[in-house]
Task: inverse folding
């Protein structure tokens, strides 16, 4: 069965510092991996996804994520955090060749950027 | 263009009553998903519609939950005989692409409170 884990409920970072939001997964074969962000009082928005090719994926708002097959991880990163990045971040995984249609979301990590 | 819309934005009901939640996907999107997000939790998959195919209902938590999608567009999630544990934010998402790598576009959600 596929699963995804976000080990940190909350991440606190000072503005201007680099940030990392961790995600690990368990799935048969190579997965599709996603990051979504949920700003306060707004719906989830797609940030980026890994399909194939370059392990470093670049997405919206300066975010990027690195697919690491050996560590089964897909950590979200940004070189310099902004206060406006404060939000709830969800990692998600989907089996590549499964007939199952479900995408599995992690429990979310609340990112707080202090000025 | 218009995004995914959901109504109502908030619904307060009494235990035992039935509720209907509505989702209007992005025009032309063939895939539609319902999720439930409880406080402090990740997204729980409920049901998935893809075109004219039979829906994937594997995430529905009990037979009190049902959903339909009329004309391949608007969808209604119905919860019968609501219970307090049904209180959550119900999210709808649509996707314009087939295949497992497609990103989803989320609506703002309906916050359901069962008293």
Result:
């Amino acid at each position: 069965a596929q699963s995804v884990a976000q080990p940190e409920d909350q991440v606190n970072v000072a503005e201007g510092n680099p940030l990392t939001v961790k995600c690990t997964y368990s799935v048969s074969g190579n997965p599709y991996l996603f990051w979504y962000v949920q700003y306060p009082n707004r719906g989830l928005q797609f940030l980026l996804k890994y399909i194939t090719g370059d392990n470093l994926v670049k997405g919206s708002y300066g975010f990027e994520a690195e697919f690491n097959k050996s560590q089964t991880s897909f950590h979200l990163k940004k070189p310099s955090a902004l206060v406006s990045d404060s939000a709830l971040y969800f990692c998600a995984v989907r089996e590549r060749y499964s007939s199952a249609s479900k995408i599995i979301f992690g429990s979310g990590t609340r990112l707080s950027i202090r000025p | 263009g218009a995004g995914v819309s959901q109504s109502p934005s908030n619904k307060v009901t009494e235990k035992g009553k039935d509720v209907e939640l509505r989702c209007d996907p992005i025009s032309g999107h063939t895939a539609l998903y319902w999720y439930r997000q409880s406080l402090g939790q990740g997204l729980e998959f409920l049901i998935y519609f893809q075109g004219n195919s039979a829906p994937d209902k594997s995430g529905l938590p009990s037979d009190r939950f049902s959903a339909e999608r009329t004309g391949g567009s608007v969808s209604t999630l119905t919860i019968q005989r609501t219970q307090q544990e049904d209180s959550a934010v119900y999210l709808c998402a649509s996707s314009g692409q087939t295949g497992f790598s497609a990103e989803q576009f989320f609506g703002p959600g309906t916050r359901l409170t069962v008293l």
